[in-house]
């Protein structure tokens, strides 16, 4: 099943980036050590499925990934899919930021071929390592006809979930991910309504900061971010998108300076909506010029805002984008 078939021959492309799936335990903590060929060896499959072309892209803990690294992953997927003989792509990735990179890849996914991210919660040299099972599931998902056209998927702990709306729910469980909308995935806009159809950017991308809000949060955090030329801000507000009136006032100032502000929630599940007023409610934040993100939570909203601002989209397009990610 493995090998390095040349461009133009039917194949799955496996891109490795590091993470626990590739990690060995050391005296200084677990660190990535394995490349894609070693990951495949651990799966040990011997069936007669398509050959696998391997790409060792990077070897990092995903918590240490930069935005440039994340875009490099998305470019590697696009490079792989540029070969029409490629059936689909599997990406091995750390779980800490998998919801961000997989969603970024989903934003740029413009054809039906499956792209499946996977990782592990236990290092590869652990007796109960979950990586080989997860990688086997990801490889099987790529050749399963039912995964075509479903956007980027994540195979972990026996579950196959869409990247859109995904978040890490456990620091330890093998089924470490869930989706924000209990009962079903968050709708992705149809391919015909995609706004990120251009090439995946190379070089500088827009700076977007994200803050979790809480009682007593200082509006100065937002002011400092604006002073440091953030192009966008994502606020993980309390409840269904609410905060203190002082934050609303600072948001209004940021918006006046051309900063795009997206309000989401620090609560894991459920819709964020403009329901409450009182000066700090999502009704007020929206009046101050913020966009309310109904379903995308802060890590994914931030990736979307980085991609949309970098592509030069204006406030109307960006507002429509968030609204289109509905239930
Ligand atoms: N389970 C994991 O993969 C966690 C690891 N720190 C990473 O994200 O790379």
UniProtKB/TrEMBL annotation:
Domain Asparaginase/glutaminase C-terminal: 207-322
Gene3D superfamilies hit by this protein: 3.40.50.40, L-asparaginase, N-terminal domain (3.40.50.1170)
UniProt keyword rRNA processing present: no
Binding site for substrate: 62, 95-96
EC number: 3.5.1.1
InterPro entries assigned to the protein according to its UniProt record, in alphabetical order: AsnASE_II, Asp/glu_Ase-like_sf, Asparaginase/glutaminase-like, Asparaginase/glutaminase_AS1, Asparaginase/glutaminase_AS2, Asparaginase_C, L-asparaginase_C, L-asparaginase_N
First-level EC class: hydrolase
Record's catalysed reaction(s): L-asparagine + H2O = L-aspartate + NH4(+)
MF terms (GO), sorted A to Z: asparaginase activity
CDD domains cross-referenced by the UniProt entry: L-asparaginase_II
Residues in L-asparaginase N-terminal domain copies: 12-183
Gene Ontology biological process terms from the UniProt entry: asparagine metabolic process
Keywords from the named record: Hydrolase
Residues at the catalytic site: 20 (o-isoaspartyl threonine intermediate), 20, 95
Keyword Endoplasmic reticulum on entry: no
Transmembrane stretches, start-end: none
Signal sequence region: none
UniProt record similarity statement: Belongs to the asparaginase 1 family.
Protein known as: asparaginase
Organism: Gordonia lacunae
